[in-house]
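User: Sequence in, structure out. Go.
Assistant: Echoing your sequence, followed by the structure tokens.
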Amino acid sequence: MIKEVKDFLENLKDKKVAFVGMGVANVPCAKWLAENGVTVYACDGKDKEFIGEDICRELEELGVHFSLGKNYLDVLPDMDLVFRSHGILPFQNKWIGECIERGQKVTTEMEIFFKLCPAKIIAVTGSNGKTTTTTLIFKMLEAEGNRVFLGGNIGKALMPELENITENDIAVVELSSFQLLTMGNMVNKPDVAVVTNIESTHLDHHISLDEYVDAKRNILIYQNSNQKTILNADCDYSIGGKVYHDMRFDVRGKLSEFSIQHKVANGAYMKENGDIVYNDNGIETVVMNKDDIIIPGMHNVENYCTAITAVWGMVKPKTMKSVAQSFGGVEHRIEFVREYHGVKYYNDSIATSPSRVVSGLKAFNREIIMICGGSDKGNDFCEMVPYILKYVKLLVLNGATANRIYDAVTSDKNYKNSSIKIMKTETMEEALMLAKENAESGDIVSLCPACPAFDQFKTFEYRGRKFKELVNGFGE
């Protein structure tokens, strides 16, 4: 453990630390601090059943105090340090301002990690493709023999790993706009910053689209001239007819780009014959062909171009190709679950936006049965409607957005001439049963929500795992 981490833990020994929102990041962080002798309070508006009885029991055994339910914030005035969950945005929660007015520090797991991490950090953000790209970078670096730590928005807290990470390691971190919002002037800027793309999303949480884009921009504007920025040459940053200030003008380090549409001066791109080439200022190296990539869809070719650009100089091309020929994809992203009575079932629970649904439908490139719907984050569903009408034979809608998606599809000018059948029900479980009852041998059934899971599940991971549990429970 490096001195800075030891000092951080030692300085908290006589302090009271609260974690607000006991999700996938705060739970292991609270456990870590408690294990190191810090007085910890777990605060959440939900009860122990929602958090998880086993999790709560483990925390209690470590001496963690609980403040749950309606008055869960009442303990905050007595705290010295407060960790907010990444999903709790500072400008929309009055209690955060009240803590600051009292002189209390409010932070997040990622802010502390960036401050104290001694290793090289590769950070990935964007509207789509973050998880697959982050995983590919991790896989390539690991296959090259590096000791790599993976975490952030991908579902693993990295702050507890600070006691194990050294300056010789590499941390690969996925960052959401919620995490980046308060990560301005990062103490330990990312050595490599990746922005996969930008589109209009998360408008149910952000005050405005400008706030969302500015949060993403935080990943690169504090870099220095020796660090590297990866941007999408195919993304013009045009959202809803408004062209935002191009992030290329914000780059402080060395700019590289990736593309699946045309040649780039410095970075990975795909040629017309399908070869993925890295252009190092005029010196071109063929890394692989798109057919070497076993996970389907052109969006995954784009993800590989992104990852190749990020790790260039750290990973040999033959290692990158080997990963492409063996990596079967991340959990919840067009993940094959099983074949039952001739019907193939796929879990695409991570497709929480219309553009991700479009990518999934294009990847199948045939008519499927699609399970769609979830909580409402303000997305415009119209962009996916033409692809639904082209690639979906049965659309089973559920959840809080079922009616909105139904209206978007049925109001399209091409709906009446399509052969699509639409069914609506309340829950994802009921939607799966309807899909199963209507599927025939040779069909594909895919969970493609286009929405977050919060109306029925804790996260999209919980939704995806429940879907797989149900599908695997069909019997022989």
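User: And one key feature?
Assistant: The first strand starts at residue 16 and ends at 20.
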